[in-house]
Specification:
The protein is mainly alpha-helical. It folds into two domains: 58 residues, no CATH class; 55 residues. 48% of the residues lie in helices and 4% in strands. It contains four helices and two strands; from the N terminus they run ααββαα. Strands 1-2 form a two-stranded antiparallel sheet. β1 and β2 form a beta hairpin. α3 crosses α4. The radius of gyration is 21 Å and the shape is flat. The protein starts with a helix and ends in a 6-residue tail after the last helix. The relative contact order is 0.07. The mean pLDDT is 88.
Length: 136
């Protein structure tokens, strides 16, 4: 058969295709990774094995297990404060993004310039499509 990286480079629509499908290491427990991809990681039994195609968004992902990455030996207690800060910042960023979407969906500005009005309408339409209803 053909090599995974050659096929990925040829047909992948993801930016990782240029690297033969190689992406940064990820954890099977990382909530930032789509659940379907995490499940595919768990399903691949051995190094070099490939998962079945997994639907993610509007495309498919195929996972090839490259192996485990050894930990750095740093105890959690040594990085707890830094990790807590990183989580707090990520939560703040997510909340700010949600508030910005809510603002865009609910604002009713008066725009006199047609070019600006077109841009505003596109932004508002995208915000309406991409998020839940505004929070009260």
């Amino acid at each position: 058969g053909d090599r995974f990286e050659d096929i990925a480079a040829e047909i992948s629509t993801d930016i990782s295709g240029a690297r033969g499908g190689l992406i940064s290491p990820m954890s099977k427990f990382d909530p930032g990774v789509p659940a379907a991809v995490r499940e595919a990681l768990w399903s691949v039994p051995t190094v070099g094995a490939v998962s079945a195609p997994v639907l993610v968004g509007t495309g498919y992902v195929i996972v090839r297990y490259e192996g485990d990455v050894a930990g750095d030996g740093v105890p959690l207690s040594a990085v707890h404060e830094e990790a807590a800060r990183a989580v707090r910042i990520a939560q703040e960023r997510a909340r700010m993004d949600q508030l910005a979407q809510d603002l865009v969906r609910t604002a009713k500005p008066t725009i006199f310039d047609d070019a600006l009005a077109d841009g505003w309408n596109r932004v508002r339409m995208e915000a309406t499509r991409s998020g839940p209803p505004p929070q009260e």
